[in-house]
Structures are given as structure tokens and as C-alpha cells.
Give the backbone structure.
Amino acid sequence: MNMNKEIKIAPSILGADYGNLNEYLKKYESFSDWFHVDVMDGNFVKNLTIGPVVVKGIKTKIPLDCHLMINNPHLYIEDFAKAGAYAITIHAEASRHLPEDITKIKELGCKAGVSINPDTSVDAIAKVLPMVDLVLIMSVHPGFGGQAFIPEVLDKVKWIREHFPDLDIAIDGGIDHETAPLAIEAGANILVSGSYILKADDPEKAAERLRGAVK
């Protein structure tokens, strides 16, 4: 059901070496379509990561998708846009004024994305799907890497792909060589993967395995 959309690989840099980030990311540039930047505030999720200052310091030719797992994202959208984000993805659960926030992202020149957690129904974002450039389906509970994939979320992917065949659909959490084919078959075309790629002996081969280019 993937509608023959090109499969994109977006390594999550949650487990990256932030002390030497630009050199670290160079190892992944040749086979990455996007870098997925997890931004956590310690409130919306129980983890604390990086802010716009760190994003501004990232020097890479790969587009940065900033995934804002933060409350009141409208307060920080402009900061991340100015820091160099290619796309900004916000959570339906955290945004008080979702359509307005999406409009603001686009007005600032970034691709706009909306995300939902595993327990959130697709109904929560149905009205804004015509507005966004991408939708991110969380296949784990957000906050920490290395969690097990939740297969029930694939029904959301299928519904979105059926009703919005041209939309970029990303999936994030527990993506590896076993779950990636399931996600692609359901309709996802952007695979966000952290530990499976970053901890692999051969990261490029791991990424291409997700893409379906190698077994």
C-alpha cells in the first residue's frame, strides 16, 4: 500500500555524540535523506535533550527534521526555524492551537509536520492533515530510544495513506529490519531509526536494509 513513494531514511540523532556532533554526523550523510532531531523538554516527555542553539550549530548538507516533543510548541517554532530546521514536526497532544501552529511553521519557510503518540487516535489530526507536509506516527511511547515497536499503530498509517496518498508518512520507534517492511507495506515512506543504524557495525548497510535495497 506504499503507493510507490520513495523510501527515505532518517537516522535519529538521539544517541549521537553531542560533544562532537558534526564529525559524528558526517559518517551518516552519504546514505541519509534526513536527520531526525529529537527535541524533548522534560515535561511533555520524561527526557531532556537539545534546543535551538545546538541545532543552529549543526553543519550538514542533510535536511534537519526537528521533532518537537515539547509543550506549547508555538513558543519555540520560530527559534527552530531560524536555527536551520528544514521541517518542524509538532505533537497534536502538545499544541493548543494546532492549525495556527502549522500555519506558522509554513510561513517561516519550513515543512510542517504533525505527530501523534501510540495511544492517540488519528481522529485528533484528521482535520489538519490537508495542511501538513508530513505526518509522524510514533510506534513507541516517546522519550527514550531502544523501545519495542507497537504494531497496532500500523492501522493509522494505512488509514492516512488511503485517504492522503501523496502525503509523506514517517514512522518512529523500534524500526529495524523486521519492522521496516511492515511499516512500508502499511504506507510509511520515511523511516526514522536510531539505535538500529547508529549502533550497527555497518551503518550504511543497516540503512539500506531498512530501505529494502539489501537483505
Q: What stands out?
A: The chain has eight helices and eight strands. The two ends are 21 Å apart (CA to CA). The mean pLDDT is 86.
